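Q&A log
Question type: sequence-to-structure
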Amino acid sequence: MILRRTYLRSLLIIVLLILLILLTITLVERQRLSGINQTLQQLMTGRFIDAEEVDLSQPENQFAYAWHLHQQGLFEQAVDAYGKAERSVTSDFVKVIHYNMGNLYLEQAIEVAEQMGIDRATALADVAKDLFRTALKQDPDFWAAKYNLEAAQRLSRDLPLGDLQESGAAEETSEELWSAMPGFPLGLP
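Response status: OK
Response body:
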């Protein structure tokens, strides 16, 4: 009987210690998430916020700050911030960073193309396509990345190389041509 009471007390103490540890872990995680939410609310004010004003110790905050720079139109700073966030986030989150960086490059490519900087726009669109493809390698069902990859391909075609014909008298038919004109179609002919 005494042995059984001692056993039950020991078991009860162990269960209470485990519950106390779980409660402590939950409180620490709640505090961490509360800090992330505060940073997100701060970044959503719409005004520019400098990096020193934000706690960038958490990967989620780094990603949110990169998105903030993206929304502020600061292309190069956003690319740097996404690069830093990419090194610190979990592997499942990397696809979202590649997708957002692809969007950033695609937006920049469209802006440059509208100003008739076709060569630079093509280069930016190619970088965007590579980023979208990287995101799709990680998640082939990522529909938004597929859609934006197609939009980037409209700006900069991936032309098939095909077989090289050495004869100068080779005639091309209209079925073999593929338009390489960058840009989005304005409508039906």
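Response note: Confidence is low (pLDDT under 50) at residues 164-171, 173-178.
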